[in-house]
Specification:
278 residues; mainly alpha; Arc Repressor Mutant, subunit A; Tetracycline Repressor, domain 2; 3 domains; 74% helix; DNA-binding transcription factor activity; Transcriptional regulator, TetR family
């Protein structure tokens, strides 16, 4: 190993130490507690050393957002294997909310702190996702034909939009199969996907910031939201239809089997009159 390579590795190792320390502070104390001096104390370096790697605290925050967003995208990768597009969208929605709940400070930093942080996360996902030689797109490419090719191609062009592309492609599959209501089918796919994303983000944001939200279990709320957008799952809808048909048949059978209420008294009254006669 040459001197230049050794110095480069040492520089990268120190950069990772800085980010690791910053990440621990954010997770433990929140972003407001993050400062260059606190990070320097955590890694036992002078604050001046940090500025050799990052221009400011905001620069560190943007790097953390890139990593956090790549982590979110990684949770979506196995879901591309789901063949049914509606179930794929449901799984994506649940995974998105679960990430926000399980990593609240990371989620806040990416989506709720500073627009420039969000922009860095969406724009920097390519490097963060593929830094180990693989990427979410590579994994998706091996997922089989159930995963959308368009998602992978678009993610290569703009990895910050990878999640939206997966949603859009699933929606297009539902439209092609005639499984969308007329109102939804007439809507532009990108608009629909962004609206669903906004709904899911609202659930996470309220869960993180509002002490009285939700009053129902979070999983129930997510399910109701997804049902509102996608309709009841096919198996549930079919089961409900079958149950209704069975109930209808039983009701008809009862009406035929039971004597008519209006017919019963007539012969009884006739019998009584006959008995009272001479």
């Amino acid at each position: 190993m040459g001197i230049a390579e050794r110095k480069h590795r040492q520089k990268q190792a120190l950069r990772e130490r800085i980010l690791d320390a910053a990440r621990r502070i954010v997770v433990r104390e929140g972003f407001a507690a993050l400062s260059m001096r606190k990070i320097a104390d955590a890694i036992e370096y002078s604050p001046a050393t940090l500025y050799l790697h990052f221009a400011s605290r905001d620069d560190i925050a943007r790097a953390l957002c890139e990593e956090g967003y790549a982590q979110l995208l990684a949770t979506f990768v196995p879901l591309v294997r789901i063949a049914d597009p509606a179930e794929r969208l449901r799984a994506l929605g649940r995974a998105y909310v679960a990430f926000g709940v399980e990593h609240p400070e990371t989620y806040r930093l990416i989506f709720m702190e500073d627009p420039s942080y969000t922009g860095a996360a969406l724009g920097g996902a390519a490097a963060a996702t593929g830094k180990d030689g693989g990427s979410a797109d590579d994994s998706s490419a091996n997922a089989g034909t159930s995963g959308s090719t368009a998602s992978r191609d678009n993610a290569d062009d703009d990895p910050g939009d990878a999640a939206l592309h997966i949603m859009i492609d699933a929606l297009d599959e539902l439209r092609a199969a005639g499984r969308l209501s007329a109102s939804v089918a007439s809507m532009e796919s990108a608009v629909w996907a962004e609206a669903l994303w906004a709904s899911l983000h609202g659930i996470v944001a309220l869960n993180l910031t509002c002490p009285v939200f939700p009053s129902a279990p979070l999983e129930t709320l997510v399910g109701v939201t997804l049902d509102a957008w996608l309709g009841a799952p096919q198996a549930v809808a079919a089961g409900a239809s079958n149950s209704a048909a069975v109930r209808g048949k039983k009701a008809v059978a009862r009406r035929h089997a039971e004597p008519s209420e209006s017919a019963d008294p007539v012969p009884e009254r006739a019998t009584k009159r006959k008995a009272a006669g001479p």
